[in-house]
């Protein structure tokens, strides 16, 4: 998630690692790492304000960028930090502020306002430089899979075009015209198969198949404009089951993708369910495949949601998939972590239940308790 946070929030940035097993936050005082499953505070460092904190899976490597409130934490300096030793491994300095950083086990991507740099993460040798349109918010999406490792960047300042770049093979893959208005949010599925986008209008969410640059789904989020803060696919390595988004209204939106495909096998009606098959989709889809959780965050407060787990429930007598259950974690920039269970049955009925909620800035680490 790009560092777009207002200084009025206690949290300056938030990110989950590549398998969503952990998440990190940056604050005015330092940064913290939590276990997503337990909520346990695993690591904290109080050395100043940070606007980027990115993890490499569950390793000890962090990519961190300071807020510039003190000379040693320049927003133009990327520090690769080892949490085991508590020391900086390497530093990379740039001419302008770093707006986003993404990593996998082979690549390090650094996004500036008008350039994007691709490095070999082991040697830190620079592999490519991508000139981009002015990208003031550091908007990007990244799929960490080594087989389908794509980077998505805005391709236009006047419309919602997406540039897709293959980070492993180091070449431009395609450009997708997704919206009439400029982009506000985007996300790639974990294996790089699908990309979801929203424009500054925020009324339509579109999903494209990356390999063919073709539209697969189009969902109407709402009638009135809203700023989309985040988009996230479910973790399926095939067709993602669910897509979630957070918006400035304080709501979390859930869209049924792959699960509706299971339903369509037993409901062969040719109206809406026929139209949800990728390749024959309009912008006026049935609201049955969209549900809203209202008031997850106060209106206007940034929030970031991910789908950590999806389970399918089958009828034991027929083996037919009859329900889908997702675990959705939400970080709000006013300092809260929430986790919901979302169930969708074969009648397209959505049911939300809050499983846990806690304040991120008041959690005490196990080390502090034991000492």
UniProtKB/TrEMBL annotation:
It is a peripheral membrane protein. Its main location: membrane. SMART domains: WD40. Pfam families: PROPPIN. The chain crosses the membrane at residues 46-67. This is Autophagy-related protein 18b isoform X1. GO terms for cellular component: phagophore assembly site membrane. Keywords: Membrane, Repeat, Transmembrane, Transmembrane helix, WD repeat. Belongs to the WD repeat PROPPIN family. PANTHER family: WD-REPEAT PROTEIN INTERACTING WITH PHOSPHOINOSIDES WIPI -RELATED. It is found in: Preautophagosomal structure membrane. It comes from Prunus avium. The keyword Flavoprotein does not apply.
């Amino acid at each position: 998630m790009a560092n777009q946070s207002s200084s009025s929030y206690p949290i300056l940035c938030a990110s989950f690692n590549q398998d969503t097993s952990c998440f990190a936050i940056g604050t005015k005082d330092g940064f913290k790492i939590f276990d997503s499953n337990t909520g346990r505070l695993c690591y904290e460092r109080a050395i100043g304000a940070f606007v980027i904190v990115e993890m490499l899976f569950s390793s000890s490597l962090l990519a961190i960028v300071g807020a510039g409130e003190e000379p040693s934490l320049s927003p133009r300096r990327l520090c690769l930090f080892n949490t085991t030793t508590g020391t900086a491994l390497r530093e990379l300095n740039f001419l302008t502020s770093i707006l986003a950083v993404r990593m996998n086990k082979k690549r390090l991507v650094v996004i500036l306002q008008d350039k994007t740099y691709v490095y070999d993460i082991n040697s830190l040798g620079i592999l490519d430089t991508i000139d981009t349109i002015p990208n003031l918010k550091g908007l990007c999406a990244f799929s960490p899979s080594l087989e389908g490792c794509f980077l998505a960047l805005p391709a236009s300042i006047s419309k919602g075009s997406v540039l897709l770049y293959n980070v492993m093979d180091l070449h431009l893959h395609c450009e997708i015209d997704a919206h009439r208005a400029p982009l506000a949010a985007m996300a790639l599925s974990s294996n790089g198969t699908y990309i979801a986008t929203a424009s500054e209008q925020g009324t339509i969410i579109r999903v494209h198949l990356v390999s063919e640059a073709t539209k697969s789904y189009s969902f109407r989020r709402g009638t009135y404009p809203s700023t989309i803060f985040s988009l996230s696919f479910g973790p399926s390595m095939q067709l993602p089951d669910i897509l979630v988004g957070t918006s400035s209204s304080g709501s979390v939106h859930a869209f049924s993708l792959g699960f509706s495909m299971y339903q369509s096998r037993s409901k062969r009606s040719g109206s809406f369910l026929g139209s949800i098959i990728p390749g024959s989709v309009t912008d006026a889809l049935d609201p049955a495949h969209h549900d809203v959780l209202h008031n997850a965050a106060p209106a206007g407060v940034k929030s970031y949601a991910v789908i950590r787990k999806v389970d399918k429930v089958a009828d034991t007598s027929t083996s037919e998939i009859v329900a889908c259950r997702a675990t959705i974690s939400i970080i709000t920039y006013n300092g809260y972590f929430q986790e919901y269970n979302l169930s969708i049955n074969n009648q397209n009925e959505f049911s939300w239940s809050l499983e846990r909620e806690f304040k991120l800035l008041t959690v005490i680490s196990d080390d502090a308790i034991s000492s």
